[in-house]
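USER: For my understanding, would you kindly supply a protein sequence with its C-alpha cells?

ASSISTANT:
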Amino acid sequence: MSLNAGTGQLQVFGYGYDGDVYFSNTGAMDLKDKKITWKMNEVTINKTKSKYTVTFSLENPNLLSVQMIDRVVDGKKQGDWIAKLLRKTKNNGK
C-alpha cells in the first residue's frame, strides 16, 4: 500500500495464486465513515482481466458486511457477491 501524493488516495497492489493460476492486482482504497472501498484491476498469468469493487462496512460492533460489486471478467459482467460476518461473543448471545 502506498499514498498517491497527487490525489491523496491510497494505492493498493497484490499478487498470489489460486491452484495453477497466478495473478496480480492494483487499485485504489478509500476510507470514509465506517466503510473501506477497494476498486481493483486484476490480471492472471492466462491473461484473464478482471475489474471489481470490494466494500467492507461495519454495520454495528459485531456485524461486518463484505460486498464485491461491479465485477467484470474478460468483458463479461458477473453477479454481485455479498456476505455478512457476525462476531460471536459471550455477551452478544444474551
